[in-house]
Design brief:
By secondary structure, the chain is of the alpha+beta class. The protein is about 25% helix and about 35% strand. It has four helices and six strands; from the N terminus they run E-E-E-H-E-H-H-H-E-E. The protein has helices spanning about 70-80, 105-120, 125-135, 135-140, and strands at about 5-20, 25-45, 50-55, 85-90, 145-150, 155. Strands 1, 2, 3, 4, 5 and 6 form a six-stranded mixed β-sheet that branches. Helix 1 runs parallel beside helix 2 (about 105-120).
Length: about 170
């Protein structure tokens, strides 16, 4: 049985500015995210159904696994890709829950990356479902330093050289 592992690195907000409200009521933000080497870890193996087992030092702080964002991401990806494949997901929860470092978003993004490999599907499906899972999930899908604008739906890579040119084209 093939099993894959994927890191779900913690996200750090290097800058966060609220610039006002959008017509739909969400905040218009400008932010820069960077990702750490530490974080949660997700593994997956072929299975008939989708399931999630949570373990690790912060596993007890999570609610019902059926409500977990990683499992919701897996279901969304499966539906978008039009597949009926399953996976036995195991989340090792090393990041504190609700700590502002993107643990749930990183876990969802890791599930999307992991399952595109396990199911051999086009990664464009992961990119398509990521925004519907949460504003941080598209950035976590990349897991590289990015600058975001708007309500978290516009991202571009950010490097030290980008600091001299703060706006992405």
């Amino acid at each position: 049985m093939t099993e894959y592992c994927e890191p779900a690195p913690a996200k750090l907000n290097l800058a966060l500015h609220v610039r006002g409200k959008l017509p739909d009521g969400r905040h218009r933000i400008e932010t820069i995210f960077a990702f750490c080497t530490d974080g949660d870890e997700l593994s997956a193996a072929d299975a008939d159904n989708l399931s999630l087992d949570v373990r690790g030092p912060f596993a007890g702080d999570l609610g019902n696994p059926a409500d977990n964002l990683a499992l919701r991401a897996a279901n969304a990806l499966r539906e978008h890709a039009g597949t009926d494949r399953g996976a036995r997901l195991t989340l090792t929860k090393s990041l504190p829950v609700a700590s502002g470092i993107g643990g749930g978003s990183a876990d969802a993004a890791a599930a999307l990356r992991l399952l595109t490999r396990l199911w051999s599907i086009d990664p464009a499906h992961a990119s398509a479902v990521a925004p519907g899972l949460g504003a941080d999930v598209p950035a976590c899908l990349l897991s590289m330093s990015v600058r975001g604008d708007g309500a978290g739906m516009s991202w571009c890579p950010w490097t030290q050289a980008s600091a001299a040119h703060p706006f992405c084209s």
